[in-house]
Amino acid sequence: MPEVMFAGPDGRLEGRYHHSSAPNAPLALVLHPHPLHGGTMNNRITYAMYRAFEKMGFSVMRYNSRGVGRSQGRYDGGIGEISDAAAALDWMQMINPNASGLWIAGYSFGAFVGMQLLMRRPEITGWISVAPPANHYDFGFLAPCPCGGLMIAGENDELVPEPAVRKLVDKLNTQKGVSVDYRIFKGADHVFANQAEQVAEALEDHVSTVMNRKTLALAAD
């Protein structure tokens, strides 16, 4: 998986990018947890999601937000990090102008950044949010949420209690045309220490289901 450096709004950003051999392959961008709590693109859950998309034939990128690893700049409370994510997306879209779809996947703080990006980029076709910090940030900006996605919570998450995530899911599911695939992992805490493979499998299951449904819908037309 080649290392890439690309221009961000606050300096150069470091990433890892896999280019699919399939023509017009869909794109996926994977976002890491909180940089002030050790979150990097090499986080186990971030890496597991990256590999899952690669396995499914996507062109996929994970990257370090500003101030992490070899990425320039400094942590910016989430605002600048959303701009970093947009820059990563721009870079991928420049290389893949005819991509057949675009997915955003984020874990913890990365899930918050990913959902913010979702509201800014109408071309995003699906999303994965693992342990979205629904008790730390106001997700009221998802009104209306442009499309459904997969949300995963840990049953024993001490940082983001499952009921907080469930409340967010229930709110999104009341919106017209939005259906959230909600999965609670038994025994999992916030770090999903033994569930990286399970996260990857849930991602593959959800993404393939959504993509197959779209293919059938197009065939019916």
TrEMBL record:
Transmembrane segments: none annotated. Keywords: Hydrolase. Pfam families: Hydrolase_4, Peptidase_S9. One of its GO terms (molecular function) is serine-type peptidase activity. Residues 36-133 form the Serine aminopeptidase S33 domain. One of its GO terms (biological process) is proteolysis. Residues 150-204 form the Peptidase S9 prolyl oligopeptidase catalytic domain. This is Alpha/beta hydrolase. It comes from Komagataeibacter rhaeticus.
